[in-house]
Amino acid sequence: MARIIDGKALAAGIREQIKTEAAVLPRQPGLAVILAGEDPASQLYVRNKVKDCEECGFFSRRFDLSADASEEVLLGILNKLNADSRIDGILVQLPIPKQMDEKRIIETISPEKDVDAFHPLNVGRMVRGDSPVWPCTPAGISEMLKAYHIPVDGKICVMVGRSNIVGKPMGLRLLRDHGTVIYCHRHTPDLQAMTRQADILIVAAGCKGLIRGSMVKEGAAVIDVAMNRDPETGKFTGDVVFDEVEPKASFITPVPGGVGPMTRAMLMKNTLTLAKLHMGLLEK
Ligand code: NAD
């Protein structure tokens, strides 16, 4: 039987710690969140981010643009925020409307305020292994592994999914921490042959029921990143068949209540880290 990783409790503890650290800084850490369009899920995420800022004692600014707003308007806001000394972190909620060029928007955010670490300069720093902040989901998973004393060093780590926001940076983080990393994706011919090798199996495919019990090694730590929304019930499930995998795993994350809350907490932690860097309280 696996130990269930309680991401909710862990995240609440991290937020408490962040609040304590933020309270003694010379000024409030500041986060700007920009939402373009009316996607209900994105609206909820942005509301939660602003709420988390309040809870942690941060300064926050929210910008809401209509779905047909021009790219120039968004770029103008980003340039102002880049120059605003109250703002340490800037986040553009993805996905953005199709008339906007995602790459250009990400590259307009100052790399030093790039709280999601999506800017190519920060991607380069991640490849080198020394980025001050990492994308929130990989950063949250890394914190989880640490908190539950799951070692990465010398372990075989299998990453299912290679997106720029989850899979790729997660693999780089595991590599930095001395894991042996195998990336799997849609073109991987025999997924099971890979996943069965994993001491640490991280799954971010967005494919409900993808990982069955037979695909997991006895004693593996299994991290399920996916959030698959059932269109009828509105409930979320992961990619891992929990009832089959849980009896074989040593650790497993639930969905919901696993990776999701940690992702949220890491946005606050990244903002705090950037604020400390801007205040000269951390070495670059
Ligand atoms: P994405 O669609 O950008 O990437 C999915 C990746 O999975 C791709 O690399 C694809 O090749 C791979 N893949 C898909 N089906 C596969 C299959 N059958 N076999 C092997 N590989 C397969 O998705 P993403 O943005 O990385 O998100 C992945 C999932 O994680 C989604 O369900 C998303 O909602 C969830 N997510 C959760 C959090 C969180 O905080 N919990 C954060 C980000 C994303």
Specify the structural class: alpha/beta
**Helical content band:** 25-40%
Count of DSSP H/I helices: 10
Strand order of the largest sheet: 1-11-8-7-5-6
Task: Please give the CATH architecture of the largest domain.
Answer: 3-Layer(aba) Sandwich
What would you call the shape? globular
- Report the top-level CATH class of the largest domain: Alpha Beta
Low-confidence stretches: none
Q: What is the succession of H and E elements?
A: EHEHEHEHHHEHEHEEEEHEH
CATH third-level topology of the largest domain: Rossmann fold
Biggest sheet details = 6 strands, parallel
Task: Tell me the Rg in angstroms.
Answer: 19 Å
- The overall pLDDT, averaged over residues, is 97
Give the amount of beta strand, in percent.
15-25%
The small-molecule ligands in this entry are: nicotinamide-adenine-dinucleotide
Instruction: Work out the count of structural domains.
Output: 2
Task: Report, as a whole number of angstroms, the end-to-end distance.
Answer: 43 Å
How many DSSP E strands? 11
Fourth-level CATH superfamily of the largest domain: NAD(P)-binding Rossmann-like Domain
